[in-house]
Amino acid sequence: MPIKIPNNLPATNILEGENIFVMYENRAYSQDIRPLKILLLNLMPTKITTETQLLRLLGNSPLQVDVDFIYTATYSPTNTPQEHLIKFYETFDAVKSKKYDGMIITGAPVEQMPFEKVAYWDELCKIMEWSKTHVYSTFHICWGAQAGLYYHYGIPKHDLPQKMFGIFPHQKCVIEEEKLFRGLDDIFYVPHSRHTEIRREDIEKVPAVRILAQSAMAGVYAVADRKGRQIFITGHSEYDPLTLKAEYDRDVAQGLPIHVPCNYYPNDDPAQTPVVIWRSTANLLFSNWLNYYVYQETPFDLSRL
Fold it and tell me: Which residues are noted in the entry as substrate-binding (predicted)?
């Protein structure tokens, strides 16, 4: 089944070129099924890149997905054309009366700042509080996961001695079958790119959540509440093949302290083409979330949320 996105969104041509089934708005409106309503709060500066990465994964599903895009009104993005924001994005005030099957809160390049010092922190808190009553399942990514764990449960983030940067092996932590990781290998790989972490000992103090997966190298990876209404993912399964390369090349060019991303280039040689070993994990992760935590659980009538 297709993902429905606005007519003329820049991601459309890219996704169609990859044989992702995309349905334009005017065609979707003629069908009699109810698509899943997903809200994407895009906090990344390069919004077109991030929305394309996430739409690629949401579109690889047998479910029809209807996506709304929002950005924070209290901070004006500088790396996304204003005309793109005007055409495809809204602010929270424009959608706060609606209800959604699911929501994604992306990461943001503000992780080394205290949460309360982030320009849009108060607005983000309002959105996360609103999600408790207007969204069935919220999927937090990287800094978005750290922010969500801090806001909902008071779980802090901690600085790392050096950037967690590369592709790392992970394992599930729960003995019983966890639907979010159904179909994944016993060891699966995920990209990470961050300067901070959340720690197991802090999470274990909060009975309302549990750790679902972790990495011996990268630490805690997946945390969720007991019903899957709030899911927190510390890595970036959505990354494109060359995303880490772009970050590495940028930091090298700026003279910043950065090591070659782990398990990314063959023989750790940046002159070689990176090998993708996380794509199947990314597709299963998002399709499992859409199916088991959104589609299977959300009432057909969203007003009953």
Answer: 163, 193, 250
Look-up of token digits 């959540």 = 209
193 carries a ligand binding annotation: yes
* CA 34/CA 165 separation, integer angstroms: 40
Hey, how many other C-beta atoms are within 10 angstroms of the C-beta on 181?
21
Distance CA 195, CA 40 (A): 24
Spatial distance between the Cα atoms of 208 and 227, rounded to a whole number of angstroms: 10
Active site residues: 142, 236, 238
Q: Distance between CA 105 and CA 292 in Å, rounded?
A: 19
Distance from C-alpha of 216 to C-alpha of 225, rounded to nearest angstrom = 22
152: helix, strand or coil: helix
Domains of the chain as residue ranges with CATH = 3-160+194-242+279-304 (3.40.50.880)
Mean pLDDT of the chain: 91
